[in-house]
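Researcher: Structure prediction, please.
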Amino acid sequence: MRIAIASDEAAQQAKERLIAKLNADGHEVTDSAPMVQGQARVDYAEQVALSVLRHDAERGIIVSSRGVGASVAANRVPGVRAALCNDAYSAHVGAKTEGMNVLVLALHSLGETMAEEVVASYLDASLAPIEVVGGLPPRRLQRVFSHIRENIARDLSVAELAQTVGMSQYYFSKLFKMSTGTTPHQYVMRQRVERAQEQLRESRTPLAEVATLVGFETQSHFTSVFRRLVGVTPKHYREMHQAPSHNAVEFGMDEQKSATAA
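Model: Predicted structure follows.
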Protein backbone atom coordinates (compact mmCIF):
# COMPACT_ATOMS: atom_id res chain seq x y z
CA MET A 1 0.00 0.00 0.00
CA ARG A 2 1.18 3.55 -0.71
CA ILE A 3 1.30 5.46 2.56
CA ALA A 4 2.04 9.14 3.28
CA ILE A 5 3.43 9.83 6.74
CA ALA A 6 4.64 12.86 8.70
CA SER A 7 5.22 14.00 12.25
CA ASP A 8 5.97 16.99 14.38
CA GLU A 9 9.47 17.45 15.82
CA ALA A 10 8.77 15.57 19.07
CA ALA A 11 7.54 12.49 17.22
CA GLN A 12 10.39 12.32 14.70
CA GLN A 13 12.03 9.19 16.14
CA ALA A 14 8.69 7.40 16.50
CA LYS A 15 7.93 8.21 12.88
CA GLU A 16 11.28 6.84 11.69
CA ARG A 17 10.72 3.58 13.57
CA LEU A 18 7.25 3.26 12.07
CA ILE A 19 8.57 3.95 8.56
CA ALA A 20 11.15 1.18 8.98
CA LYS A 21 8.44 -1.25 10.11
CA LEU A 22 6.10 -0.35 7.24
CA ASN A 23 8.89 -0.69 4.67
CA ALA A 24 9.80 -4.08 6.13
CA ASP A 25 6.16 -5.13 5.72
CA GLY A 26 6.32 -4.27 2.01
CA HIS A 27 4.50 -0.94 1.99
CA GLU A 28 5.62 2.05 -0.09
CA VAL A 29 6.09 4.88 2.40
CA THR A 30 6.68 8.55 1.64
CA ASP A 31 7.57 11.19 4.22
CA SER A 32 5.31 14.06 3.18
CA ALA A 33 7.09 16.67 5.31
CA PRO A 34 10.76 15.79 5.91
CA MET A 35 12.54 17.55 8.76
CA VAL A 36 14.66 20.57 7.85
CA GLN A 37 17.48 21.60 10.19
CA GLY A 38 16.03 19.33 12.86
CA GLN A 39 12.65 21.05 12.73
CA ALA A 40 9.34 19.75 11.42
CA ARG A 41 7.29 21.76 8.96
CA VAL A 42 4.34 23.42 10.64
CA ASP A 43 2.05 22.14 7.89
CA TYR A 44 3.07 18.48 8.29
CA ALA A 45 -0.53 17.30 8.89
CA GLU A 46 -1.83 19.21 5.89
CA GLN A 47 0.90 17.74 3.67
CA VAL A 48 -0.23 14.20 4.52
CA ALA A 49 -3.84 15.16 3.82
CA LEU A 50 -2.95 16.68 0.44
CA SER A 51 -0.97 13.56 -0.52
CA VAL A 52 -4.07 11.46 0.10
CA LEU A 53 -6.30 13.95 -1.70
CA ARG A 54 -4.03 13.88 -4.78
CA HIS A 55 -4.01 10.06 -4.71
CA ASP A 56 -0.23 10.12 -4.26
CA ALA A 57 -0.96 7.85 -1.31
CA GLU A 58 -3.82 5.49 -0.50
CA ARG A 59 -3.67 6.15 3.25
CA GLY A 60 -2.08 8.72 5.52
CA ILE A 61 -0.51 8.43 8.97
CA ILE A 62 0.38 11.33 11.27
CA VAL A 63 2.42 10.88 14.46
CA SER A 64 2.22 13.92 16.70
CA SER A 65 2.64 15.20 20.24
CA ARG A 66 -0.45 17.29 19.46
CA GLY A 67 -2.82 14.64 18.15
CA VAL A 68 -6.00 16.70 18.33
CA GLY A 69 -4.41 19.68 16.59
CA ALA A 70 -3.01 17.43 13.84
CA SER A 71 -6.45 15.88 13.32
CA VAL A 72 -8.07 19.30 13.01
CA ALA A 73 -5.42 20.49 10.53
CA ALA A 74 -5.76 17.40 8.32
CA ASN A 75 -9.55 17.59 8.34
CA ARG A 76 -9.42 21.10 6.91
CA VAL A 77 -8.67 19.44 3.56
CA PRO A 78 -12.01 18.38 2.06
CA GLY A 79 -12.21 14.72 1.12
CA VAL A 80 -9.95 13.77 4.03
CA ARG A 81 -11.26 11.93 7.08
CA ALA A 82 -8.63 12.10 9.83
CA ALA A 83 -9.09 10.80 13.37
CA LEU A 84 -7.04 10.25 16.50
CA CYS A 85 -7.05 6.56 17.48
CA ASN A 86 -5.46 5.00 20.54
CA ASP A 87 -6.56 1.39 20.02
CA ALA A 88 -6.61 -1.14 17.19
CA TYR A 89 -10.38 -1.62 17.19
CA SER A 90 -11.13 2.09 16.71
CA ALA A 91 -8.58 2.34 13.90
CA HIS A 92 -10.09 -0.65 12.08
CA VAL A 93 -13.69 0.54 12.44
CA GLY A 94 -12.72 4.11 11.58
CA ALA A 95 -11.38 3.01 8.19
CA LYS A 96 -13.97 0.34 7.43
CA THR A 97 -17.09 2.20 8.57
CA GLU A 98 -16.24 5.90 8.57
CA GLY A 99 -13.85 6.08 5.61
CA MET A 100 -10.97 7.36 7.77
CA ASN A 101 -8.15 7.76 5.26
CA VAL A 102 -5.72 9.50 7.63
CA LEU A 103 -4.80 7.91 10.97
CA VAL A 104 -3.47 10.18 13.72
CA LEU A 105 -1.33 8.68 16.49
CA ALA A 106 -0.74 10.55 19.75
CA LEU A 107 2.94 10.24 20.66
CA HIS A 108 2.48 10.20 24.43
CA SER A 109 -0.51 7.83 24.48
CA LEU A 110 0.96 4.84 22.66
CA GLY A 111 4.02 2.68 23.14
CA GLU A 112 5.91 1.45 20.09
CA THR A 113 4.29 -2.01 20.10
CA MET A 114 0.77 -0.66 20.55
CA ALA A 115 1.30 1.95 17.82
CA GLU A 116 2.33 -0.80 15.39
CA GLU A 117 -0.79 -2.80 16.31
CA VAL A 118 -3.04 0.21 15.73
CA VAL A 119 -1.41 0.89 12.34
CA ALA A 120 -1.64 -2.78 11.29
CA SER A 121 -5.34 -2.90 12.16
CA TYR A 122 -5.96 0.35 10.30
CA LEU A 123 -4.20 -0.81 7.14
CA ASP A 124 -5.87 -4.22 7.29
CA ALA A 125 -9.34 -2.66 7.05
CA SER A 126 -10.95 -1.94 3.69
CA LEU A 127 -11.68 1.76 3.28
CA ALA A 128 -15.32 2.85 3.20
CA PRO A 129 -16.25 5.20 0.33
CA ILE A 130 -16.13 8.90 1.17
CA GLU A 131 -18.82 11.22 -0.11
CA VAL A 132 -17.30 14.59 -0.90
CA VAL A 133 -19.77 17.44 -0.54
CA GLY A 134 -19.00 20.67 -2.38
CA GLY A 135 -15.90 21.63 -4.32
CA LEU A 136 -14.75 20.15 -7.61
CA PRO A 137 -15.99 16.65 -8.49
CA PRO A 138 -13.19 14.15 -7.70
CA ARG A 139 -12.45 13.28 -11.34
CA ARG A 140 -12.15 16.93 -12.33
CA LEU A 141 -9.96 17.65 -9.33
CA GLN A 142 -7.58 14.81 -10.27
CA ARG A 143 -7.52 16.12 -13.84
CA VAL A 144 -6.34 19.50 -12.55
CA PHE A 145 -3.69 17.85 -10.36
CA SER A 146 -2.40 15.87 -13.35
CA HIS A 147 -2.30 18.96 -15.56
CA ILE A 148 -0.25 20.84 -12.95
CA ARG A 149 2.12 17.91 -12.45
CA GLU A 150 2.70 17.47 -16.21
CA ASN A 151 3.17 21.19 -16.93
CA ILE A 152 4.95 22.41 -13.81
CA ALA A 153 7.90 23.75 -15.82
CA ARG A 154 5.90 26.43 -17.61
CA ASP A 155 3.61 29.27 -16.66
CA LEU A 156 0.28 28.00 -15.32
CA SER A 157 -2.46 30.58 -15.10
CA VAL A 158 -5.70 30.10 -13.20
CA ALA A 159 -7.51 30.63 -16.50
CA GLU A 160 -5.67 27.68 -18.05
CA LEU A 161 -6.42 25.44 -15.08
CA ALA A 162 -10.08 26.41 -15.20
CA GLN A 163 -10.15 25.58 -18.90
CA THR A 164 -8.96 22.01 -18.25
CA VAL A 165 -12.26 21.32 -16.48
CA GLY A 166 -14.43 23.63 -18.59
CA MET A 167 -15.25 26.22 -15.91
CA SER A 168 -15.10 29.95 -15.54
CA GLN A 169 -12.03 31.23 -13.71
CA TYR A 170 -14.05 32.61 -10.79
CA TYR A 171 -16.12 29.47 -10.26
CA PHE A 172 -13.12 27.20 -10.64
CA SER A 173 -11.05 29.16 -8.08
CA LYS A 174 -13.88 29.01 -5.57
CA LEU A 175 -14.43 25.26 -5.96
CA PHE A 176 -10.69 24.46 -6.02
CA LYS A 177 -10.20 26.16 -2.67
CA MET A 178 -13.21 24.30 -1.28
CA SER A 179 -11.62 21.03 -2.43
CA THR A 180 -8.05 21.62 -1.28
CA GLY A 181 -8.14 24.36 1.34
CA THR A 182 -5.78 26.49 -0.74
CA THR A 183 -5.94 28.72 -3.81
CA PRO A 184 -4.82 27.44 -7.25
CA HIS A 185 -1.80 29.78 -7.17
CA GLN A 186 -0.72 28.66 -3.70
CA TYR A 187 -1.09 25.03 -4.69
CA VAL A 188 1.03 25.48 -7.82
CA MET A 189 3.75 27.23 -5.80
CA ARG A 190 3.84 24.32 -3.36
CA GLN A 191 4.11 21.82 -6.19
CA ARG A 192 6.97 23.78 -7.76
CA VAL A 193 8.85 23.75 -4.45
CA GLU A 194 8.23 20.01 -3.92
CA ARG A 195 9.57 19.27 -7.40
CA ALA A 196 12.56 21.50 -6.67
CA GLN A 197 13.27 19.59 -3.46
CA GLU A 198 13.51 16.37 -5.48
CA GLN A 199 15.94 18.01 -7.91
CA LEU A 200 18.07 19.41 -5.12
CA ARG A 201 18.29 16.07 -3.32
CA GLU A 202 18.97 13.95 -6.41
CA SER A 203 21.05 16.11 -8.77
CA ARG A 204 23.71 18.80 -8.88
CA THR A 205 21.88 20.86 -11.47
CA PRO A 206 22.73 24.57 -11.02
CA LEU A 207 20.18 26.45 -8.91
CA ALA A 208 19.24 28.80 -11.74
CA GLU A 209 18.46 25.80 -13.93
CA VAL A 210 16.45 24.13 -11.16
CA ALA A 211 14.40 27.31 -10.87
CA THR A 212 13.62 27.16 -14.59
CA LEU A 213 12.86 23.43 -14.53
CA VAL A 214 10.15 23.91 -11.92
CA GLY A 215 8.59 26.96 -13.52
CA PHE A 216 10.06 30.01 -11.77
CA GLU A 217 10.97 32.94 -14.01
CA THR A 218 13.87 34.10 -11.84
CA GLN A 219 16.20 32.48 -9.33
CA SER A 220 15.46 35.21 -6.79
CA HIS A 221 11.72 34.46 -6.89
CA PHE A 222 12.50 30.75 -6.59
CA THR A 223 14.70 31.36 -3.55
CA SER A 224 12.11 33.60 -1.89
CA VAL A 225 9.22 31.13 -2.28
CA PHE A 226 11.38 28.12 -1.38
CA ARG A 227 12.64 29.74 1.83
CA ARG A 228 9.11 30.77 2.83
CA LEU A 229 7.69 27.26 2.41
CA VAL A 230 10.66 25.11 3.47
CA GLY A 231 12.42 27.35 5.96
CA VAL A 232 15.87 27.39 4.30
CA THR A 233 17.31 28.54 0.98
CA PRO A 234 17.62 26.07 -1.95
CA LYS A 235 21.42 26.17 -1.59
CA HIS A 236 21.29 25.29 2.10
CA TYR A 237 18.68 22.58 1.47
CA ARG A 238 20.97 20.93 -1.09
CA GLU A 239 23.94 21.08 1.29
CA MET A 240 21.86 19.37 3.96
CA HIS A 241 20.76 16.51 1.71
CA GLN A 242 23.79 15.82 -0.49
CA ALA A 243 27.27 14.59 0.35
CA PRO A 244 30.13 16.78 -0.92
CA SER A 245 30.97 16.11 -4.56
CA HIS A 246 34.02 14.00 -5.44
CA ASN A 247 35.79 17.05 -6.84
CA ALA A 248 35.05 19.07 -3.72
CA VAL A 249 36.43 16.31 -1.51
CA GLU A 250 39.59 16.09 -3.62
CA PHE A 251 39.96 19.87 -3.54
CA GLY A 252 39.70 19.83 0.24
CA MET A 253 42.32 17.08 0.49
CA ASP A 254 44.67 19.00 -1.79
CA GLU A 255 44.27 22.09 0.39
CA GLN A 256 45.01 20.03 3.51
CA LYS A 257 48.15 18.53 1.92
CA SER A 258 49.36 21.98 0.89
CA ALA A 259 48.83 23.32 4.40
CA THR A 260 50.71 20.34 5.90
CA ALA A 261 53.59 20.78 3.47
CA ALA A 262 53.81 24.44 4.30
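Model: Strands lie at 2-7, 28-31, 59-64, 82-84, 102-106.
Researcher: Thanks, that helps.
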